Amino acid sequence: MIKINLLPYREKEKKENFAQQIFIIAGSFIVFVLVLAWLQIWITSSISKLENQIKEAETSLAALDKKIGNLDKYKSQKQELEQKLGVITTLEENRLAPVKTLDNLAMLVPVKDIWLVKINQKGSSLNIEGMGRDNIVVADFMKRIEGFDPIKSVDLISSKKTEFSGITLQQFNFSCVLKKGF
Which of 61, 63, 147, 182 has its CA 20 to 30 A from that of 140? Predict the structure, then answer.
């Protein structure tokens, strides 16, 4: 005897397989959509964090630029002050130089023989005007001035006899060139 099964078990299996496949496809699609949504949220938050970091970096850069600007200003002020202090130091060092030079020049003047009337300095040029007892005293005074350390050279501009209070004197005018640093 042959038995025939009339129940549609193969169709039932096909329907179950089809339902499983649809469930797997739908589940995969839902997982794919969830992964895409998570990826979108993650990228958006990363972009937001990076933009915040850029804003913070820009604000700190602006603050640093301001500090650098102040630093440059302070450097230029410091340089100006150092320059002024250098000038003050130079002036302080050279403050007594003219006094010493005039004092030493006064020591060269023979008492009772030479009278200085005017001493004038412009740059490295020194002009000495005065009166002497005679030509020999004036020439001797000129040689003394030539031996004076701050003086480089002495030139006689004029020498003439003049009468002063009834006494004949030799009026002279010297032009001197000073050495550098005096």
Answer: 182
Q: How far apart are CA 63 and CA 112, in angstroms?
A: 77
- List the beta bridge partners of residue 36: none
Instruction: Please report which confidence band the pLDDT of residue 15 belongs to, taking 50, 70 and 90 as the band edges.
Output: confident
- Label residue 132 exposed, middle or buried (CB < 10 Å: 0-12, 13-18, 19+): buried
Task: Classify the C-alpha dihedral 88-89-94-96 as positive or negative.
Answer: positive
Please give the average per-residue pLDDT across 87-116, as a whole number: 82
pTM equals: 0.49
How far apart, in Å, do the first and last CA atoms of the chain sit? 147
Q: Which residues contact 156 (CB under 8 A, 6 or more apart)?
A: 142, 172, 173, 174
**What pLDDT is attached to residue 174?**
92
Q: Decide if pLDDT at 1 tops 70.
A: no
